[in-house]
Amino acid sequence: MRDRVLPAHGTARLCWTIGLAFGLSVTHGMASASDGEMAPVRLRVQESLDLIKAKLGVAHEVTAQIVEQHPLMVAVAPTPGRRDSFQVSFEAAFVAELTDEELDAVIAHELGHVWIFTHHPFLQTEQLANQIAMRVVSRQTIEAVYAKVRARGGHTDSLPRFATSTAN
Fold it and tell me: In the chain, what are the domains?
C-alpha cells in the first residue's frame, strides 16, 4: 500500500486494496460471480458494511459486490454513472478466509477511503484509511488482515508505517 494523491477532477476512480493503491480500474482483471451463488456472501458483507457505515457516519450509498476473482482482493470505487455512490468489490475466496471481525476491519478500511474521498480527496492515504478504520475496529484485527493478505502474496507496503506510526 502506498500513499497516493487523487487527481483534482471529480471523475477520479477511487480504488484501494489491502496491498495496492489508487489508479487501478476496479473492473480490470475481475471475474464476475453468479448472483445466485454469491447472494449469501453478499448479504453477509452488505449487512456488515451498512452497520460500519452508520458507525463511521458515512452518508453516501455504498454497496457490496462479490466477484470470483479480483486482482486486488478488495477495492472501492465510485459507482459508474451514479453521483455520491460507491461500490466495494470483494473477492469471494478472500472473504471466505476472514473472521467476522476481520471482515469488519476490511470494510472499515474501505469506508475510510470513502470518508476521505468525500471530505478531503487530496489526502488519500492507506495510513489515514487505517486510522479511520480504527475508530470502529482494533489495530490488532487490522494487523491480522494484513497477515492474511501477506499469506496470499498480496502487497502490504504500508504496514510497517502503519504499525509504527499509529497509536492504539
Answer: 31-155 (3.30.2010.10)
